[in-house]
Amino acid sequence: MWLIFLPLIVVIFVPIYYMIMMAFTTEANQYLWPIRWIPQPGTLQNFRKIFADPLLPLARWFMNSLFVASVGTLIILFTSSLSGYAFARLEFPGKRFLFSLLLFSLMIPVAITLIPAFLLLRDLKLLDSYHAIWWPAAASVTGIFLLRQHFYSIPTDLEDAARVDGAGRFRIYWQICLPLVRGSLFALAIFSFLALWNDLFWPLIVLSKQTILTLPIGLVVLQQGSYVQRGLAFAGAFVATIPILIFYAFFQRRIIAGITMAGMAGQ
Amino acid sequence: MAISTASAGSKSRRWKTLRDQLPNYLFILPQFILFAVFLLYPIARGMQISLFDWKIMLKDQHFIGLANYEALLKDKVFWEVLGNTFKFMIITVTINVGLALLVASGLKHGFFGSEFLRVLFYAPGLLSVAVIGIIGIRVWDSQLGIINYYLTSILGGPRVSWLGDTRLVIPALSITTIWWTFGFPMLVFIAGLHNIPENLYEAAKIDGASTLQSFRRITLPLIMPTMLFVVVTQFIAHMQVFAQPYIITAGGPGNASRSVVQYLYETAWKYFRYGYASSISVVLALIMIVVTVILFSAMRNRAEY
Predict the structure, then answer these.
(1) What pLDDT score was predicted for residue B84?
(2) Which site in A18, A70, A223, B69 is 20 to 30 Å from A34, CA atoms measured?
(3) Which residues 132-191 of A have a C-beta within 8 angstroms of B?
(4) Which are the contacts of A214, defined by CB distance < 8 A and separation ≥ 6?
């Protein structure tokens, strides 16, 4: 089996290895031909440069991305789980209609919302702030479907018992049901965090002040204009990628399960 | 008399239920406010803006009816980028889905290290598209690229100008995208394949069916619902491709790799023609909805058989 997959393993692995290797190669040696697969001499000069250059505040962009993705994920978890719970467990007039409205919206391509959402955020003076990223992202409805399914599957007796004990509906949601769907919450968190961490397109539209840029835009800046230094771009790519890959290595099982779960829920 | 009390009773009971259910709306309120503000309203607003010659600084926008759409139909660049996008989407979706299903079939039966392979194959999906861009530029580079390194140094072939050739640039971007994204459909297919009962394959084996036959007769029909989901989501994702050409080729050479969304982006945020850009987005949305519906009905029929 491994033999059959060997070509694919090589194809997947080589570009990632190449990026890591080039991050540790001096600018002068970036253009050596034929390619040297081990940096000689290895150097940290690229990293020193990107972390020292005030015009390229990479550490800052990294922290910005972390902040944007973390807060955004929390917002999405909160709004999606509230609605997912309501659609699975609570009754209210118009429930079916509202749910099919959400389903229908999955058919609409995001492209059509870009310009009006941008103009709206501009009128609200929210451009160049992270609100412009969080709130449109939290409007996405995919998380509701994932969580609704899971809320359905938990037995009602727990809730009934809590109700008899006089717990209000919000407390039942928060203290009883939410902990029971941890698996789905984790899946949604991974999915949302990665989407926010990696997104380039929307931040490119709504963010322009250099100090508040996120890492993906920073990486594009790194390889445009006067900064077109390959070593720096690779070092930036390394910084953006390695924390994610390390996190992935530690939690691979749960991440794979979570992403599969999120993927299957869409059906 | 009895009837009227009963109806009054049910009325007050209904009233009581309603009052009891009213707070439940609070649960969906945050989501629906965002949904209305950032999804429903922009859809309607986008259609409206497309009827104006919308300029960002003006107080009163100039209504021009369908003029944007008329111009769009005559816009050679639009047709070119639409063609590019379809070409990119078809190559990417076809290979992505085929490769993902193939790899998933191979990984379905756990073997030593199969779990590791699943983790490895998904790994590129974790990278930011900006990182994909940085890597992609160097992979395809005609002078220093990895592909040409293998082609010239190891296979002794000629140097190919992958990103400078109008016929090769879209396949190159497609392959980059497949490398980046095939892990997700692979995971979904693995889960889908696990839902097919194993005894069907055993029965087919007893009847003397070959691996290929049982793939065609059992796997393919039963994976259809999953396939439908994967194809539709892949279609929606890749039809709206932006960052790969934006970073790797900037849409070039000429317009050869410019995508619809990139054209939309430039029309709006480089030339500030919001009205015209809106008409692009409306047409793109219409095309995508029509194709999605066609995909659904075509694959539904096959799934039922």
Answers:
(1) 95
(2) A223
(3) 135-136, 138-139, 141, 144, 169, 173
(4) A61, A64, A65, A68, A199, A203, A207
